[in-house]
Give the backbone structure.
Amino acid sequence: MVQPRDILCETPSQTAGPYVHIGCIPSFAGLGDIYPEDLGRSPISEGATGARITIRGAVLDGTGTPLRDAMLESWQPDAAGRFAGMAGADPHVSGFCRFAADKDSGEFTLTTVKPGPVALRDGRMQAPHIALWIVARGINIGLQTRIYFEDEDNGGDPLLSRIEPRDRAETLIARRTGDGRYRFDIRLQGAGETVFLDI
């Protein structure tokens, strides 16, 4: 007897692209008037407290070429280290953002507030960070990573301290390029490959 798996072929819905923008951020894909605005357009709204920052970067393949169809989602706490829904959390910080690389340059931009340190249940503190999920054509399972900041005390962070060899942790550090501006490139493979998390 022929089983369905023997006759069915892979379809575009089983990959991360090229249709991911149409389904997730239709305005970016040029399909206006579907929603008032795309879900996750910004992680903050007017009135959010904390230092405003802008992170720019690119998702780079093994040759160093930017992926121009990459889509990213970010999740972060507010400036006090509280996530949306927690007691005392800033009501103007949803913490969630969905954004894409520019189709011409391959660069992405995230404008938000700098997150605060996050307390774990056991009392340890995580250094300020932003969690990222990355998809693009050819990435069939979304990649998880984090952005930390070079001008913060990252020494005691429970995740960074577990990365071996130690210099690999540097791939998760955003470099300051100016007042409130940072650079964070994501390398999918090769020299300086970004640390990805299996969560």
